Amino acid sequence: MKYAFYPGCSLDSSAREYRESTEIVAGDLGIEMEEIPEWICCGSTPAHMASKLLSVTLPAYNLVRARAMGVDGVVAPCASCYSRLKTANYRIAQSDDLKDKVERALGEPYEGDVPVYHVLEVLAMALDEGRLEGKLQTNLAGLKVAGYYGCLLVRPPEITGFDDAEDPQFLDRVTRAIGAEPVEWRHKVECCGAALAFTQTDVVLKLSGEILEDAQYSGAHVISVACPLCHSNLDLRQRDIEKYTGINLEIPVLYVTELLGLALGHSAGELGLKKHSINPIPALKRAGVKV
Predict the structure, then answer these.
(1) Which of 34, 175, 197, 225 is disulfide-compatible with 182, CB 3.0–4.6 A?
(2) Strands (E), 162-232
């Protein structure tokens, strides 16, 4: 399959290491991706709070551009972008009136029929196709990983159709495939507070604090995520969370593609691990991973 790659705003700015590690592992696994030319912001959280038409038209614009590339679907590493692209398809298919308005705004027809995948879905398909076989170079045995999915990958299930909404397994499958150990824990699909980080910081500190505390209690050495905003709340705000909760956490938060990249033999520098607020190197070394 050939995918149109939609990086979204975060992967071109604050989550640059997510983009870099995604492109590295895609190359290693032979996953063909081409960036959508002249893509625009999907609207993320603000658009659907302000205008239903805008919230559907912005992602639809990107999907139309992807359609022109002749690809099998769009891959979006950001959970928020994934959610907005999937929601646009769903809304267009559900309402002829909205579809007409979107088409008038776009200046061309769109049926809401370009498939949208999150990078985790693409990685899971790559595993099923045996693309990882014989390519692991770094031993991650002994590394315990709390796979954190958050809200937007799994909810609402009638729109995303992503794995099991209550107990998803894609992150756990990737973790096992690279030789690490996924831990059982209670907060894998709980909300981190998302964009409330900018308006109600105390809510984010409480919710993200509960996630971090549960991951630590489960015995995880690191948390694996697949969303830039989740990463920001759990990593960048971890010192503030420690002050808020009074609990010493110090648990690194890595993108799933960074962990996969490590297993494939790439260096911490290549994958951007040193860009994180909580340095993952000491925790990886304590788990016996050569970094």
Answers:
(1) 175
(2) 181-182, 222-225
7-32 pLDDT, tens per residue? 999 998 999 999 999 999 999 999 99
CATH second-level architecture of 2-120? Up-down Bundle (1.20)
For residue 111, pLDDT over 80 is answered with yes
Q: Which of 39, 81, 36, 41 is nearest to 227 (CA)?
A: 81
Helix count (H) and strand count (E) of the chain? 15, 8
Cα→Cα distances 169→127, 151, 152, 163, 246, Å: 13, 14, 15, 7, 32
The answer to whether 289 touches 139, Cβ cutoff 8 Å, is: yes
Tell me which CATH code domain 137-286 carries: 3.40.50.11810
- In the Cβ-directed half-sphere of 20, how many Cα atoms lie within 13 Å? 16
How many other CB atoms are found less than 10 A from the CB of residue 230?
A: 28
Buried b or exposed e, range 241-268, using 16+ CB within 10 angstroms = bbebbeeebebbbbbbbbbbbbbbebeb
